[in-house]
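Quick one, tokens below:
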């Protein structure tokens, strides 16, 4: 993980950092400029199929936010990974073995980075991504 974080980032321009600061303002991330449009308002115009995935215990971007983002997209397909996905979440990918979370050697939960570098990602997340890309390959 340390190598990923050390090598995965480069110098970020100040203008981009200022724009990223709008994430925490009312209405969320905006385009650059004083009257920048909210990106959330533009999601309905997205005409490209998108697989929008969430980790059931992601504290950075909770599943409810990911689900709302996918719903705003014209062709957003939402999937939540892990046994901790909200109970009413019909898009949950769950491989529950019936054990309590604290008792499992490899608990079936996904947080923010688990979707990319977690132990279960190659077996559970990656095949879904490959399938989605194959299905929408034009």
């Amino acid at each position: 993980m340390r190598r990923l974080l050390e090598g995965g980032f480069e110098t970020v321009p100040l203008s981009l950092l200022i724009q990223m600061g709008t994430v925490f303002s009312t209405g969320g991330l905006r385009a650059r400029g004083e009257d920048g449009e909210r990106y959330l308002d533009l999601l309905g115009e997205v005409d490209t199929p998108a697989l929008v995935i969430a980790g059931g215990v992601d504290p950075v971007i909770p599943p409810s936010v990911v689900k709302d983002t996918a719903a705003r997209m014209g062709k957003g397909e939402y999937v939540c990974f892990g046994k901790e996905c909200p109970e009413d979440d019909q898009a949950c990918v769950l491989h529950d073995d019936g054990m309590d979370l604290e008792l499992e050697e490899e608990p079936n939960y996904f947080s923010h980075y688990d979707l990319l570098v977690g132990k279960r990602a190659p077996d559970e997340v990656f095949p879904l991504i490959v399938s989605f890309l194959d299905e929408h390959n034009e």
